[in-house]
Amino acid sequence: MTDTTPSEQSRPAKDRSWLMRTYAGHSTAEASNQLYRTNLAKGQTGLSVAFDLPTQTGYDPDSVLARGEVGKVGVPIMHMGEMRKLFDQIPLTEMNTSMTINATAMWLLAMYQVAAEEQNPGMDPAEVAAKLAGTTQNDIIKEYLSRGTYVFPPEHSLRLISDMIAYTVHQIPKWNPINICSYHLQEAGATPVQEIAYAMCTAIAVLDQVKASGQVSEEDFGKVVGRISFFVNAGVRFVEEMCKMRAFVELWDEITRERYGVEDPKMRRFRYGVQVNSLGLTEAQPENNVQRIVLEMLAVTLSKNARARAVQLPAWNEALGLPRPWDQQWSLRLQQVLAYESDLLEYGDLFDGSPVVEAKVAELVAGAKAEIDRVQAMGGAIAAVDTGYMKSELVSSHARRRAAIESGEEIIVGVNKFTTTEPSPLTADLDAAIMVADPRAEEAAKASLEAWKAQRDEAAVAEALAALAAAAKTDANLMEATLAAARAGATTGEWAGTLREVFGEFRAPTGVSGAVGAAEAGAELSAVRDRVKATGEELGVKLRMLVGKPGLDGHSNGAEQVAVRARDAGFEVIYQGIRLTPEQIVAAAVAEDVHVVGLSILSGSHMSLVPSVVEGLREAGLGDVPVIVGGIVPESDAKTLIESGVAAVYTPKDFSLTEIMADIVEVIRKANGLS
């Protein structure tokens, strides 16, 4: 006798599930470690580490640029002591870890490897390295286009990526040294065609660089291709998104076979993880985000032949602020119900032979090929970054989407349609609906840095950093010098600072000047233009607006859209890009004699940085110039900012940029005593 029913006996065996992750890290290494161990105990099958912005951009917590940013959007890891704490009691040789790190990816991978060696003192370091599995994001090109955590110029960044790929292929063969990210391209406004095309152009640039470096033999080049992974986005148009993934699979197979001559189909397999779309999550009626997340998850799981290898889902309240552990658990449970309760994994591909799917995939492939050819004709992805072509295309595409939402052509439930709602128990207490990063994290990080430096061998650190600088001036692979610096006790800021001195820094084009904004003004925008013009005439000068991005937050999509719409509304717009200190923003306001300063902050550092700008303007004699703020700002913080002198605060629920422009004109009129 058996306990199973006939129907249970006839069920086909299930495929292996994808890796289940939540993107997490905040405040301190100790707090993040506790969160990781809790999530693993709940059934999460891999780790996805979020680092704070100073770590991502190569600054120690005592840097002036790190003010207000430490521990906000991720965990600060400034030296080996913090890396040890982050993975305490988590066996790295048994873990699959994804690290969202780009400009400083080589440094964080080196510290991760050293931490694993320290966990296994009786094992040969080479054997430890061979057991490590995971991914470093390490896609710097999309940082120039969308996310903003770049440091070095493109050619030097590609050199670091190439060195990492060559090292991992030989020393850490189970590691994905780069995760080419179309995710952030979609967040910046990319259409499915642009997302496919620009990701493929990035892959071509990277593979061409590895081949040109001569560090990998022809026989091993297939292994390089086989370890290239992708990190994609899945929006709520889940049929189109599913077809996009099938198009990715088809195109990657073709490029790796025809351009690089890879014969082994396993090495040509399109391997990707996914974080589903955060751009479409709404602050208004945030409970609707749950069904959005589910639909987006289906886009990357339903099609077996294009199924994600790893999935991490945002939480329902990410448009409000930092999710709590319970919110992350809810997102994990969404995956677990699909994988373990449904019968999805018992069947082959559900869409093979579908004429609808085949036609859509062919359309996407053709469009992507045409855009790839356009970029390659310019000289490839790096040239298209330098000229600003890809950035302008993304800003323009995002502007079209914003215009479609504002006109009602694109419906967002709860935002521009079906806006009447019952009170939500999820947001009854908004201050409790999100987690606030420990305000003491910055001081704790500074104390940790000071203590670390006090106990280390300064001579050994200086020698290791000098060796790193010397190697950077040659064609040597920098991974060994980086490992030596980690073992000696160098810090994140010191490693990056050493390479900054050799490579220099870079400021990517903003894409605003070449972007196409509103194709047609419409009555509402025309009325704002008239008001802008009339106010300028009353003041005797064209209205000037400074759009500023203080701190290290590189998510510039909102700032770019505000700048484009302000220009369309008739303002003269001054936008100097990302990563400015409050002092630099004040200096620009003085030099340009602006009528309003708009600050965009999404990293949670608004309570530190905004008051610094307001006070700086007062000290510069511009206390009458109004300051407005946009970003993910909790309601209680918004009230505090307004009480401290900020003229207005806008959050994701304020989706109409034209209405915001109308408000700004009135703010300027009030500040200048105009009726």
Automatic annotation (TrEMBL):
Needed cofactors: adenosylcob(III)alamin
Domain B12-binding, first and last residues per copy: 542-671
Entry keyword annotation includes Isomerase: yes
A Pfam family that the UniProt record links to this protein: MM_CoA_mutase
Assigned keywords, A-Z: Cobalamin, Cobalt, Isomerase, Metal-binding
One GO MF term attached to the UniProt entry: cobalamin binding
Family to which this protein belongs: Belongs to the methylmalonyl-CoA mutase family.
PANTHER family (UniProt xref): COENZYME B12-DEPENDENT MUTASE (PTHR48101:SF3), METHYLMALONYL-COA MUTASE, MITOCHONDRIAL-RELATED (PTHR48101)
Subunit structure: Heterodimer of an alpha and a beta chain.
Name of protein: Protein meaA
Organism expressing this protein natively: Nocardioides luteus
